[in-house]
Amino acid sequence: MPFVPHTEDDIREMLATLGAASIEALFDEIPAELRCGALDLPPALKEMEVARLMHARAGQNRPLLCFAGAGAYEHHIPAAVWAVVSRGEFYSAYTPYQAEASQGTLQVLYEYQSMMASLTAMDVSNASLYDGATSLAEAVLMAVRTNRKSHSRRILMPKTVHPFYRRVVETIVGSQALELIELPYDAKIGRIDPGSLELHSGTDIAALVIPQVNFFGILEAVDELTDWASANGAVAIALVNPIALALLKPPGEWGKSGADIACGEGQPLGIPLSGGGPYFGFLCCRKAHLHQLPGRLVGRTVDVDGKPGFTLTLQAREQHIRRGRATSNICTNQGLMVTAATIYMALLGPEGLRRVALQSHQNTLGLMSGLAAIDGVERVFSGPFFHEAVFRTRRPTQKVMDGLAERGILGGYELTREYPELGEAILVCVTETRTQEDIEAYVREVKSLVSHG
Amino acid sequence: MSRLPDDLKYAKTHEWAKPEEDGNVRVGISDYAQEQLGDVVYVELPDVGRRVKAGEACAVVESVKAASDIYSPVSGEIVEVNGALSDAPEAINQNAYAAWLFCVKADDLSELNTLLDAEAYKAGAETD
Questions:
Q1: For the residues of A164-201, what is the DSSP string, one character each?
Q2: Do B67 and A148 touch (CB under 8 A)?
Q3: N or C: which end of chain B has fewer CB within 10 A?
Q4: A249 and A368 co-located in one domain
Q5: Cα–Cα distance between A225 and A66 in angstroms, integer?
Q6: Residues A189 and A299 in one domain
Q7: Contact between B62 and A148 using a beta-carbon 8 Å cutoff
Q8: Cβ–Cβ under 8 Å, residues A156 and A181
Q9: The total number of structural domains that make up chain A
Q10: Which residues in chain A are closer than 8 Å to B47, comparing Cβ atoms?
Q11: Are residues A408 and A387 in the same domain?
């Protein structure tokens, strides 16, 4: 439906039909004391002035060569993705979820759901959530609802899960009487210490969160962890990187019976970094948990004439029907983002995704071996990594990062604030977008920064 | 016309209750209720062993367009639930009086006297 503005004549006619004197008069139910008075705003700028102001502001951006990951990853996005997504039918359609009007949109969402279910080896996927962090919070709440045998509302949350995600989960579940129990990590390997699980064996645990790949870039022992969860009556929640799944075993195949729920950040699938958003969260699960899955679900069915079509389904889970007893307060999805992700996945296919993952991994291996050869730099963890790894230098991380920035490089993510026990450590990421020259430049600059002072 | 067996007791909230020999009370929803709900797609049943009070919501019947709380008509302990409903929730639409939801070991069978008989329930439902 296109935007239809009102002319002054249209407005006069409508008011006359309503019998209202003015638009203001339509708000006369709002008490005077609740009305907003004059807003102390500066005078309005003209379009030309605004454009100049924005250009000046944008000019302050300094594009840096990106070696940072930590939850958002720079991958190459084929031009076709956003060329298609920018079409008005996708880009500016307003709430296009009515089966009678939006079969195209619903079909894209169904394809998206099918791809995510396939990628994670799960039975069902929803039509997406806000972002990776909130998808983890929803997964945790879902696990508590679906785990009928557990009454403790205790969740095992490893310290190797992204610190921002842990804070978001705390914020969201904190007021619902859930207890998040931190699981420590093995300082040598850089992954969850299996011994720390023994402490909780035989106790009532509602769910275990298993990141793959973890925040340090290290691979977790997912089979062991999933089997422990299963043996202990806990729901296994897989928090996964979708690109990594092109190379690693998907959550549905972890351990003896697979994880129960899979969630994570979908940004790597064709979404630009964009200063932190919009991104999208994905949430997939086994059929047994379907009725506790939050978010929109598109289903495939037949119409009254027996012709195939798509529609939103199982809506009795959602708040417009279930209100306070709904699976979540969410009543939306990231439609535009998942359209882009679906096109990205369709263009690359499993083989393309695999190449992206492999190239990223190989680049990171190359960078880390170059760094480890520098005197004063060491690799922190011995565990195998995907496309991120942690290194430590004898100079303060601030100095290294500032020095790299001066040389046009975003050096990574400093771990000193959230993991002070690791010392002067930086989390660095190399994707397929970095060339050999880029990697050599990084190593060269770090070497120069570390040997001076 | 909805079916309304004479030998059952009914709650205003559309549950039927059937006292059994062993002091247990079997509970389901009326034919009128399943008609109003439409195609049932999912039933959430209470855990066996759970204690319930008369009037307490302890189950949910979900259809394509609504999710309805089901209230136990009597106080007591849930001793049995109808597991067959997880694979075939549509049984409730097919025969609401055969597709029972749960069975309560009643603390006090006299609570059944506060329930409605078929006539009274029918009168109430028609004014709904």
A1: HHHHHHHHHHGGGT-EEEEE-EETTTTEE-HHHHHTTT
A2: no
A3: N
A4: no
A5: 33
A6: yes
A7: no
A8: yes
A9: 2
A10: 148
A11: yes
- The single residue listed with the structure tokens 């958003």 is A277
User: Is A140 inside a domain boundary?
Assistant: yes
Contact B44 A291 (CB under 8 A): yes
Give the residue numbers spanning the domain of A425.
Answer: 65-74+349-451
* Shortest Cα distance, chain B CAs vs residue A283, angstroms: 21
Nearest-angstrom CA–CA distance, A117 and A218: 24
Please check whether residue A22 lies inside any domain of the structure. Answer: no
Whether residues A161 and A305 share a domain: the answer is: yes
Is residue A371 one of the residues assigned to a domain? Answer: yes
Q: What does the alpha-carbon distance between residue A132 and residue A165 come to, in Å, rounded to a whole number? A: 8
How much is the ipTM here? 0.76
pTM over 0.80: yes
Q: Which residue has the tokens 């069902």?
A: A124
Q: How far is A100 from chain B (nearest CA, A)?
A: 17
Max CA pair span of chain A: 83
Tens-digit pLDDT string for chain A (453 aa): 567 899 999 999 999 999 999 999 999 999 989 988 889 999 999 999 999 999 999 999 889 999 999 999 999 999 999 999 999 988 988 778 888 888 999 999 999 999 999 999 999 999 999 999 999 999 999 999 999 899 999 999 999 999 999 999 999 998 899 999 999 999 999 999 888 999 999 999 999 999 999 999 999 999 999 999 999 999 999 999 999 999 999 999 999 999 999 999 999 999 999 989 899 999 999 999 998 999 999 999 999 999 999 999 888 788 787 777 788 888 788 999 999 999 999 999 999 999 999 999 999 999 999 999 999 999 999 999 999 999 999 999 999 999 999 999 999 999 999 999 999 999 999 999 999 999 999 999 999 999 875
Q: Are A321 and A373 in the same domain?
A: no
Q: Which CATH code for domain B20-126? A: 2.40.50.100
Q: Do B65 and A316 touch (CB under 8 A)?
A: yes
